[in-house]
Amino acid sequence: MCDLRCEIFANRKSQITNHKSQITNHKSQITMKILVTGGTGYIGSHTVVELQQAGYEIVIIDNLSNSNIEVLDGITKITGKKPYFYQADCLDKAALQNIFSEHGDIRGIIHFAASKAVGESVQEPLLYYRNNIVSLLNLLDLMPQYGIEALVFSSSCTVYGQPEILPVTESSPIQPALSPYGNTKQICEEIIRDTVCATDKLKTIILRYFNPIGAHKSVLIGELPNGVPQNLIPYLTQTAAGIRKELSVFGNDYDTPDGSCIRDYISVVDLAKAHVVAVERMLAGKQKSEIEYFNIGTGRGLSVLELINAFEKATNVKVPYKIVGRREGDIEKVWADPSLANTELGWTAQETIEDTLRSTWKWQLSLRNCN
Ligand code: NAD
Ligand code: WQD
User: Fold this and answer.
1) Is 160 annotated in the active site?
2) What is the pTM of this model?
3) What's the CA-to-centroid distance between 46 and ligand 1, angstroms?
4) What is the CATH number of the domain that holds 331?
5) Ligand 2 centroid from CA 307, angstroms
């Protein structure tokens, strides 16, 4: 009798094991497809890598206005998977429609595509308003027509201006924008908010990034600034590499411990990972409201001089610099309170600033080797 029972048990066990493997196989067949606009850009490319490694299938739309096609090779070398790629402009609604028709199984969109140079936006406001706002309008128009309900939007800590209280939380007041670029981010947030209120077919997560820096550890993708870099880190690494004579530190007479401005520098890889958890949260229906905002920063403020010092310690490379006058429009000090993202998204920045600075230095050296 006991032998018979053992045999029956053994059979049941193998049936359960087979059933479980069928479920696993079935799950792997339901690969979620995500559209990433601006996906060959700095943050977009790092996010595509993390999404692919999390099992998502990716469609990239990018007009290559601020990136190049070689980034696709980098992504593919890292993940072993080549994303679908369309060189198209988000301002071209017909082109977007063709892509949406070809990929009827897109489950969500991460919208990175935008122009992002603050200084240029002052010189070319209409280019910025058109590019950053109309591209969003086109997506919001088309999403319901193709049954796409989930949108992650790239916003910026710029919307907070110079916060009165630090660290800055998601409920810190939005201040009048100091540049057309910053204004496009505020306007886009308002457009999304009003669209969410007008429909029950849209849910969005707005991620407000602080200062993304660094590169993927593979050194196959990183930041590719066009021309003379406006941002601190690419200018700093080009100076360290001897491409630039010396770094100008824009002011040391601010109300900060060493007089230079303070920012929240976050690893671009950590930032990319925040997008994966945001997408997962939306597709799993875990959002607590149709529109959610999260500050994506480390919660740690570093001054320009502290960053230079950290770079030199992390890489053993000196950075020649000089103190010059303030740069117009610069915020004196801003850093995030990321506790909402930490608790709600279950996301926390992991990389140390030293590792991030080492990754950006290795990336700079790789660029010099191929230039
Ligand atoms: P990026 O310029 O490297 O990437 C943007 C990509 O979008 C580029 O590849 C560009 O070719 C593409 N693009 C621009 N306009 C397009 C259009 N109309 N159609 C199709 N493609 C278009 O910039 P990034 O640093 O990766 O920034 C990505 C997003 O994050 C932007 O929305 C930016 O405003 C936002 N953001 C960036 C920072 C930062 O410091 N880098 C900080 C906060 C927010
Ligand atoms: C950082 C600090 C400079 C260059 C900008 C945009 C913001 C977001 C991120 C898009 C500042 C100082 C810089 C240099 C320097 N982009 N600096 N010498 O201004 O915080 O933010 O990029 O969303 O919207 O405003 O970044 O890297 O330009 O400057 O001293 O050659 O480094 O004064 O204090 P910023 P940044």
Assistant:
1) no
2) 0.93
3) 12
4) 3.40.50.720
5) 12
